[in-house]
Amino acid sequence: MPVEMPRQRFEDLVSEALDQVPGEFAAAMDNVVVLVEERNEEEPHILGLYHGVALTDRMHDYGGVLPDRISIYREPILAMCDSEDEVVNEVVITVVHEIAHHFGIDDERLHELGWG
C-alpha cells in the first residue's frame, strides 16, 4: 500500500535531501534546478530524471541555455515505499542519483556505488 504524504511534506524531504549534498558538490552544480513532479507521463514508474547537459559534456560554447532540470517524481516514490522512513531514504537516494547525472556519472557506475 503506498504511503500517503502531502505534497508539501514531500517537497520538504527533497529540500532536506538537497541540504545533505556536500558543500563542494552543491557549489559545483551549475545551471540546474530541482523540481518535484507527480510522475513522468512517458515513463510513469521512474523515480527521477535528469534533463540537461552534464557538466562533463559541456563544451566551450555552452551558454545562454535554460537551466538543466532534475525532476523528482512523487507518486512512484510513494507507491514503492511502505513507511515514511522508506520515503525519506528513497528521496535521498533519488536526489543523489540525479545530481550524479549532472556531474556525468552514468547509471552503471551509480549502481556499482550503491546509488542505483
Please characterize this protein's 3D structure:
It is built from five helices and three strands. It is α+β, with helices and mostly antiparallel strands. The chain has helices at residues 7-19, 23-28, 74-80, 84-102, 107-112; strands spanning 32-37, 48-51, 68-73. The longest helix is centred in the last third of the chain and has 19 residues, at 84-102. The protein has a three-stranded mixed beta sheet with strand order 1-3-2.
Write the layout of secondary structure elements.
Layout lengths: L6 H13 L3 H6 L3 E6 L10 E4 L16 E6 H7 L3 H19 L4 H6 L4
Parallel strand pairs: 1-3
Antiparallel strand pairs: 2-3
Name its key features.
116 residues; 5 helices; three-stranded mixed sheet
* Overall geometry: globular
- By DSSP (H or I, 4+ residues per run), the number of helices equals 5
Counting helices, strands and paired strands, the structural category is alpha+beta
Low-confidence stretches: none
Structure at a glance:
The chain is an alpha+beta fold. Helices cover 44% and strands 14% of the residues.
